[in-house]
Design brief:
There is one protein chain. The chain is an alpha/beta fold. It has one domain. Helices cover 49% and strands 8% of the residues. It is built from 17 helices and six strands. It has helices spanning 15-23, 25-35, 42-46, 59-66, 108-116, 128-131, 133-143, 157-169, 182-196, 205-215, 226-234, 238-245, 253-269, 275-279, 291-321, 341-347, 364-370, and strands at 79-83, 89-95, 119-122, 219-222, 326-331, 351-354. It has a six-stranded mixed β-sheet with strand order 4-3-5-2-1-6, sandwiched between helices.
Length: 371
């Protein structure tokens, strides 16, 4: 197997790493549960606790009351309102798939939009996988080699050896992982970096809001599926897999990646994430790539972001046309740039407004319902 240009000491840029951390929900959450990683407990991820206190006041009501005004410590993540010419609208809320206790202190504009929303739409509803045993079995089938090969057959020797070294140094290596596909090795090390960054997948915005929405009786929808996300990786050629994994051959890469994750999280909290934060290149010299290799890399990035944005936008337009008030909660980067959801909606004639204050949210929906 040949890896002619993907074995530089500095590796390929962290472009793919940042995209994965920011956008891919499935891989970030599956592996901690399957492997029993001590920093993420299954019960912590998917248990929806009772919301009624001894005094008869729900915890949700209390949390909403406490966060109805923005405190000095409140976060201010990116949110938009998309409205069609008939006055139907939806909220767009940028998420991140790992966080900390800060996600429990949402700003007033989010709380008002959340209260108005009938439905919360996520990339995937992760809790469904654990409500249905057959779904878990399907995931296992998707992430394990069934052709007699192992991960070692699909990576360069240098990348494979370094990844094994990383797992062993952190006491999370298991010989059974040899049969797992690259997406799960990516998830193992991604979650290790998340842990070293002081964050937790259980505190990812998607998981926190899924549990909160279910406790509040809101409808939970998904604009993609677990199979769809995993198939993005399972369909990649070995050369593209090497592009994705080769940065792990660099010494100190987990610590470096942990810092990048932490920096990205701080920008998420202040609503200042930009396209370059998840797509910028840190050293790849495309002049050294063959045309075929450039095409493979471009195909991968297009499938992972651009094409997914189109699919999410189509789903959102359907939600808006239905007359329901929906809050779309997906990775922040999906909303940004010329190919982002915000731009795609504007090209279809929607008015999209960045929301930074509860005062911007009118009462059109309540008036419409009362009429």
């Amino acid at each position: 197997m040949q890896y002619p240009l993907f074995r530089k000491e500095d590796g390929i840029s962290m472009k793919t790493k940042r995209i994965l951390c920011t956008l891919l929900a499935a891989a970030t959450l599956i592996m901690p549960i399957l492997s029993g990683c001590k920093h993420v407990e299954k019960k912590e991820l998917f248990k929806v606790e009772s919301t009624t206190s001894e005094e008869g006041v729900s915890d949700t009501e209390t949390s909403q009351t406490e966060s109805s005004s923005v405190s000095e410590n409140a976060i201010t993540p990116s949110m938009w309102k998309a409205e069609d010419k008939k006055g139907n609208y939806a909220y767009l809320f940028g998420s991140i798939h790992a966080g900390d206790s800060a996600v429990d202190n949402m700003p007033d504009y989010f709380e008002k939009a959340y209260a108005e929303s009938d439905t919360l739409a996520f990339e995937i509803d992760m809790s469904n996988m654990y409500d249905n045993i057959s779904a878990s079995s399907s995931v296992l089938t998707d992430i394990i080699y069934s052709d007699g090969t192992t991960i070692k057959d699909h990576l360069s020797e240098k990348t494979y050896n370094k990844m094994v070294e990383i797992l062993k140094e952190n006491s999370i290596y298991n010989p059974l992982y040899e049969y797992y596909k690259p997406v799960m090795w990516e998830s193992l090390i991604e979650n290790l970096a998340i842990f070293k960054a002081g964050l937790n997948s259980a505190k990812g915005v998607d998981m926190v809001l899924t549990n909160r929405g279910k406790a509040d009786g809101k409808t939970i929808e998904e604009v993609e599926s677990m199979d769809f996300q995993l198939n993005l990786f399972n369909g990649l050629s070995d050369n593209v897999v090497e592009v994705m994994m080769s940065p792990y051959a660099k010494d100190g890469i987990v610590e470096e990646h942990a810092k990048q994750i932490k920096d990205l999280y701080e920008k998420w909290k202040t609503g200042t994430i930009e396209v370059k934060d998840v797509l910028e290149e840190d050293g790849i010299d495309e002049t050294q790539l063959t045309e075929e290799e450039k095409a493979l890399l471009e195909e991968y990035n297009t499938a992972l972001l651009t094409e997914r944005n189109k699919g999410m936008t189509e789903k959102l337009v359907d939600y808006i046309k239905s007359g329901k008030t929906v809050m779309l909660v997906v990775g922040t980067a999906h909303f940004l740039g010329n190919d982002g959801i915000v731009s795609l909606l504007e090209k279809q004639g929607f008015t999209v407004t960045k929301i930074t204050s509860a005062d911007q949210l009118d009462t059109a929906k309540e008036t419409q319902k009362a009429a």
